[in-house]
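During the no-cost extension, the postdoctoral fellow (Dr. R.K.) reprocessed legacy sequence entries with the updated structure-token encoder. One reprocessed record is reproduced below for audit purposes.
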Amino acid sequence: MIDIKVPVVGESISEVTLLKWTKADGAWVERDEVIAELESEKATFEINAEQSGVLKHGAKEGDTIRIGDIVAQIDEKAPAPVNTTPTEVHVEEKKDVIASAASAPSAEQATADKKKISPVAAAIAADKNVDISGVKPSSGSGKILKNDVLNALSDPGKIAFNNQALNSRVSRRERMTNLRKTISRRLVESKNTTAMLTTFNEADMSRIIELRNKYKDVFKEKHGVGLGFMSFFAKACSIALNDWPAVNAYIDGDEVIYHDYADISIAVSTPRGLTVPVLRNVESMSMADVEKNVGMLAAKARDNKLTIEELSGGTFTITNGGVFGSLMSTPILNLPQSAILGMHKIQERPVALNGQVVIRPMMYLALSYDHRIIDGRESVGFLVRVKELLENPEQLLFGKDPVKALLEI
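Re-encoded structure tokens follow.
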């Protein structure tokens, strides 16, 4: 037997959670084939078979396993399965699927059954704009009938939680994932160990919106990626961090560590929780580089494919609550960093401009910072600098007004 052990995935990580087995207990596996997915405090990763053979599970899905523990074994001396040509393997797999489907309905089938609806019920639902996902079928077959839709119409404005009956008192208890526990611990630690303060400003997004509308098609054709807001913010922050180095630093014991580069963490929301992958050396990136890397990291975050290296480090964080409709918030520091910038929803508002009231697409900006290392001068100066760069995006090229650069003033 060959023991498959939980590998070391980070200096401070002592245990992981077994998310799922990708190969069944007793199944034949090939060398280097993925057999399971594990979740650490920071990321999800896969483990592979070290040799071909018959797999024996050593833990159940959802179990917490310590680093170095045996998660599975492989019997490399077991005889290889016969008749394993590609066509025959496909046939065997198909038989397994058919047998499985015959014994128990799959999740997809169960979902499909819930969506069954009679023609009359469907017509009434369409005519009255009834969302059938909230209609509970009364028949044993799971099919939504006419009376089910009529009953839903007789209770306007009433919502059934999680397909439970109205007036139910059902509660559910679920175990926190390692990622959620880590988020919880780090947020409490951030609140309790830093002198956190938030300062606000607002930016007129007219110029950036104008540039995006004018060049987005050419930009996508040239670079193969869309032109979003994040590249403007990341580049603006990289320039402002250079101007205000304390915002890009953090405390380590009795010392302050300054960074002469901008590794900007981008907060990404996933179904499993918040992750903050890092863009390395943003000051050396082009706008297209930023957009490509943001898109790549966001996709990997949604697919739980981020590595420990992609989640580690970072000297400053940007979080965008505006995508969820947030108008204003006070983001919490991403330790050990000393500052985090919150983007928010762009909303048309009346503003005074040259003595006239005009309508402009405005965004509130929030900078939360550790007052132990960053004073009001630095925090306000940083945020004003970001505002200036966003409202005058041509300055992102030189970091200053092009006319002043021309005149060397």
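The chain is about 35% helix and 25% strand. The longest helix spans residues 86-103. The remaining legacy entries will be reprocessed before the final report is submitted.
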